[in-house]
Amino acid sequence: MSSELYSAIEYLSEEKGIDREILLEALDAALVSAYKKNFNSKTNVRVELNENDGMKVFARLEVVDEVTDDQTEIALDEAKEMDPSYEVGDVVEHEVTPRDFGRIAAQAAKQVVTQRVREAERGVIYNDFMDRVDDIMTGKVQRKDNRFLYIHLGKIEGKLPLNEIMPNESYDIHDRIKVYVTRVENSGKGPQVFVSRTHPGLLKRLFEMEVPEIYEGIVELRSVAREAGDRSKISVYAENPEIDPVGACVGQRGQRVQTIVDELRGEKIDIVHWSEDPVVYISNALSPSQVIDVLVDEEDQATTVIVPDHQLSLAIGKKGQNARLAAKLTGWKIDIKSESEAREEGLLDEDPDTFDLE
């Protein structure tokens, strides 16, 4: 092989980020294929690539007692004439390089090498993007069809399903957009990257990006419940009692959370304290409603929450949204009752104060 071809391999390796050995293996396979196709050969061959001596083709024949296929086998007696040490089962090689093989090989190998390079590139892209699953990427809207918005993410297009665009947003071609990578598939057409704007992970990653205390692990984001484009709840916790996890997420004058609200086109975000005590946690999760009491059924992972009469609608929320999000956030079933209803059912014997949120 000429030094020019080796130089080209080195260039491709650096330019495409493909391992040099992968390219050499692809070229080797292409040359074997070219030899068999152009010289109508069924013989097992090996191509030797050498920067100084060029290309050489060697036929490989198995040593046998009786030859049944002279293109793949050689008799033991004949092999011993070449080298007395040969035994049955050994492989004999001899050079069969055609005179004009270089020209033919170059033409025939081009397509095969191109295909292998493309496959290797796809492998590199797949591995790169597999590392980005559950992460946020920024891209530019390229085009749209009746199923997807296609986002340019550098080496590949991300597919954003139209039903995973928030209902309160729309995009034009060339708009820049932050997306959450949900999965990467390696299909026959190459790697496919699927992204979302409605996934709860998008909200989680936005807080990690915007709140240094979360990124550094000082504040933990324990749970996320989201109805994209409308309202979300997150629960946060800090092991250090001197740290206010909710305040860290809100930021000075609400700047941190407002940045995220703006990115999500006005989606409302409730930030509540996480607690291992389900009574406290569920009371916090139903914010901004006040809570009088929480009755816990550990066995069924269910609770009955009692709220002041005038707070019932607020606790339940529009179309049940506040209660639904609180249930998703905490993982508990939540049945909300007004104070007067609870008294009628005998769930409140005394006149307790409103539950203090922690």
TrEMBL record:
Any single biological process term in GO: transcription antitermination
Q: Which GO terms describe its cellular component?
A: cytosol
- Cite a single Pfam family from the UniProt record: KH_NusA_2nd
Keyword RNA-binding applies: yes
Query: Which GO molecular function annotations are given, in alphabetical order?
Result: DNA-binding transcription factor activity; RNA binding
Which InterPro entries has this protein been placed in? KH_dom-like_a/b, KH_NusA_2nd, KH_sf_prok-type, NA-bd_OB-fold, NusA_N_sf, S1_domain, TF_NusA, TF_NusA_bacterial
Question: Looking at the record's lineage, which domain of life comes first?
Answer: Bacteria
Q: Where in the cell is it found?
A: Cytoplasm
The record's section on CDD domains has: KH-II_NusA_rpt1, KH-II_NusA_rpt2, S1_NusA
On whether Transcription is a keyword of this UniProt record, the answer is yes
SMART domains cross-referenced by the UniProt entry: S1 (SM00316)
Record's function text = Participates in both transcription termination and antitermination.
Q: Which HAMAP family match?
A: NusA_B
Assembly notes: Monomer. Binds directly to the core enzyme of the DNA-dependent RNA polymerase and to nascent RNA.
What protein name does the entry list? Transcription termination/antitermination protein NusA
Source organism per UniProt: Aquisalibacillus elongatus
